[in-house]
Design a protein that fits this description.
Helices cover about 45% and strands about 20% of the residues. The strands form 3 sheets. An 8-stranded mixed β-sheet has the order 1-3-2-4-5-6-12-11, sandwiched between helices. Strands 8-7-9 form a 3-stranded parallel β-sheet. Helix 3 links the parallel strand 2 and strand 3. The protein is α/β, with parallel strands linked by helices and about 375 residues long. It binds beta-D-glucopyranose.
Length: about 375
């Protein structure tokens, strides 16, 4: 184990290691993988560990470039890596980053236990930590930067209710990973809306381990069969899970007839919304989240306090974590263009092939 470095030492080491190899990420653009700046406005180096490339395309396609842009703009050195869904790998990356002299380490944990262990080790080496997007229960992060995830769930619940109307409806819930605190909040938010509508019946609910999209298809098929195909709406926690459910509905001639929710405003999610096979998605601007992380990290580097929106209770650790929580936006066919206008996706990515006409019909060009 390396001993604690002084800030100056850490900065020097960071400079010496600016071209560290880290190109193993699927969607990674080498220009984005690691960067240094000779005109750093903050005398430190930020390490970020993203969780995987499979549970959502957002981490590599939206978060990585947004984080790189935010750190570049702030003129601070950084190293962004991806744990590829492997908690041990995340631990190793964290050890290497700490050894390489990061002054702040931000993680999107793969589970609270491994996340808390990483944070404890970082603290023992004098490295401050931030929870990016997912709260580490029992962790020790200085800040938690995310969206209001209960509101995300409420938007999903309300979105599904808007698509279903007031008629009697059988609803299936396809929740996110049980190891992700966000998934708990999404489900709580969705239930707080849907459980209050007496004409709806919960006919099946399951969490999808690691948000695995393939497993989601198997799970949804089982829930669908168990409900005798009498499913009128699907609360899917993100666009990947939505895609899995839509695939099964398609096989049963039900796609487009059964509303499905989502989250992340991915290219596929937006295309499904335009095509009418998905009733809504939730847009969470990576640009905003990355900028909030950069601000909090730079405050820590400079020994200052970051501006927060409040605190979040860590029920396991029994502490209130200073938080910066942003506002998510509900996206339906009517406002897909908002995501594109905000730079959340590119028109040429969403409006390809058969979606060109659907985009034109929706006034997106
Ligand atoms: C994030 C979602 C994402 C999911 C799977 C959650 O913690 O908030 O945006 O879809 O993880 O990666």
């Amino acid at each position: 184990m390396k001993r604690k470095h002084s800030l100056a030492m850490a900065a020097l080491m960071g400079l010496a290691l600016t071209v560290s190899a880290c190109g193993s990420d699927d969607g990674g653009d080498s220009a984005d993988d690691s960067s240094s700046s000779s005109s750093s406005s903050a005398d430190g180096k930020i390490g970020v560990i993203l969780p995987d490339t499979e549970s959502s395309v957002r981490w590599e396609s939206a978060d990585r470039p947004a984080l790189a842009a935010a750190f570049d703009e702030a003129g601070v050195e950084y190293d962004i890596q991806n744990a590829e869904g492997d908690a041990e790998r995340m631990t190793q990356i964290a050890d290497t980053m700490i050894g390489n002299g990061v002054t702040v380490l931000a993680i999107v944990n793969l589970d609270s236990e491994s996340g808390a262990a990483i944070q404890e080790k970082a603290a023992s080496q004098g490295v401050a930590t931030i929870d990016y997007d997912r709260l580490t229960l029992g962790g020790s992060a200085e800040y938690y930067v995310s969206f209001d995830n209960t509101v995300v769930g409420e938007l999903q619940g309300q979105g599904l209710a808007d698509c279903l109307g007031e008629k009697a409806a059988n609803v299936v819930f396809l929740n996110g990973s049980p190891t992700d605190n966000n998934a708990t909040l999404f489900a709580e938010g969705a239930h707080s809306v849907l459980d209050g509508i007496s004409s709806y019946k919960n006919v099946g609910e399951q969490a999808v381990p690691e948000w695995d999209n393939e497993e989601a298809a198997t799970i949804f098929q089982q829930l669908y069969t168990a409900a005798d195909g009498k499913v009128d709406g699907v609360l899917a926690a993100n666009d990947g899970l939505a895609g899995a459910a839509i695939g099964i509905l398609e096989g049963n001639g039900q796609a487009g007839k059964v509303p499905v929710t989502g989250q992340d405003a991915t290219v596929e999610g937006l295309q499904n919304v335009l095509a009418g096979t998905q009733c809504m998605t939730v847009y969470k601007s990576a640009k905003q989240e990355a900028a909030a992380l950069a601000e909090a990290a730079i405050a820590l580097v400079n020994g200052e306090e970051a501006e927060t929106t409040g605190t979040t209770t860590d029920s396991e650790g029994g502490r209130d974590v200073p938080s910066i929580l942003l506002e998510p936006q509900s996206i339906t066919k009517d406002n897909v263009g908002d995501v594109i206008d905000d730079g959340g996706q590119k028109v040429e990515d969403v409006c390809t092939g058969k979606f060109e006409k659907l985009c034109a019909d929706a006034g997106i060009s």
